Amino acid sequence: MKIAVVGSGYVGLVTGVCMAEVGFEVICIDIDALKIAAMKQGKSPIYEPGLEDIMKKNIQKGLLSFSTDLSLVLDEVEVVFSAVGTPPDEDGSADLQYVLEVARTIGKNMNNYKLVITKSTVPVGTAKLVKEAIQDELKKRDVDIHFDVASNPEFLKEGEAVHDFLNPDRIVVGIDSERAKTIFEKLYQHFVSQGYPLIFSDIASAEMIKYAANAMLATRISFMNDIANLCEIVGADVNMVKKGIGEDKRIGNKFLNAGTGYGGSCLPKDVKALIKTAEKNNYSLEVLKAVEKVNDKQKSVLFNKLNKYYNFDLKGKKIALLGLSFKPNTDDIREAPSLVLIEHLLAAGCEIFAYDPVAMPEARRKLGNSVHYCSSAEETFINADALLLVTEWKEFKILTPQRILSLMKKPVLFDGRNIFNAVEIHNAGVEYFGIGR
Length: 437
Fold this sequence. Notes:
- The protein has 437 residues and is an alpha/beta fold.
- The chain has 20 helices and 14 strands.
- The strands form three sheets. Strands 3-2-1-4-5-6 form a six-stranded parallel beta sheet, sandwiched between helices. A six-stranded parallel beta sheet has the order 11-10-9-12-13-14.
- The longest helix has 32 residues, at 203-234.
């Protein structure tokens, strides 16, 4: 079976490369000619551990190819994954213009049966719009060609996307025909044979599952950050609270780390879109509105601690900043807490020296030269008035309090991810401030 994957961003490229890895012949489509040219040479446009190696291997095997024009390859494939972007519109709802453009292109050019699979995160009801867009184009051509539309949402964590795709918790598929079900059973036969669950549902439920999953994760993060803030006030330790509730099998210990709030390309966008979907249907998701409010507030928590420590006078202070990406193992800085923090620091008159293992090129594109970019974590410490840890990269966890003491002007650490041993840091002579501790 030959597959086309439209959109070679984070979701599309991982989908295409991993489907080739399990034996399908895949054509990845993207309108960006420079991106396609680079991918033909085996260069991934995104930072994702393991992706480029698998990509090169399957190009060499002849299972993975690239094109800028879906219409030219449409007759070759039976299945089309639509994995184009759904950026937030001005009101926070998902912008479906690219999804519908793919649908129209298919309708204009298809000559035989296609299974059109929406892989992008889209609001409930999008499949109906996709189906209507294809049908409208077929009607203009005065042809009657059978096709199916289905929903197959992704559940990939940035930094672990290849592993997640090849070892899924579950595969969710929304369908409304037996033919589509048969094709999906072939597409995911490898995964089912390995014991991974393939869940079939109606299309609307599949679309909702994706949003509900991300909304639940966002809710857990904001809940624990709210609890952490209360812990500081009453003298409790949020790490102990996390351990105590995480052992409850009804709760579990995932997504309970207190910190500076969630970011990235998924959770902020999807929470906003789900709130807007509810409003369009005359319903108010009060819990998610609170989740969003808490998260927006939490992104300023490190700045507020630092500002209070220096009696609300930060002008001229040199600040060391560790971590720019919204999480480790990715260069993604979209909606990253670091951006809010940097905005506050610059407004207060601080000079910022920042380091991130992989995200500095992305940060430079976003921030320009408003901050100093360092070549190592320790370079940021030199004569710094404070050290702010924003992203929990592994290499930061091995930093010693002795190096902080020897290099910093004022050895004070604001740990935005609670990765350091507070007692060890304090006993070494470094002032320590965590989240909820």
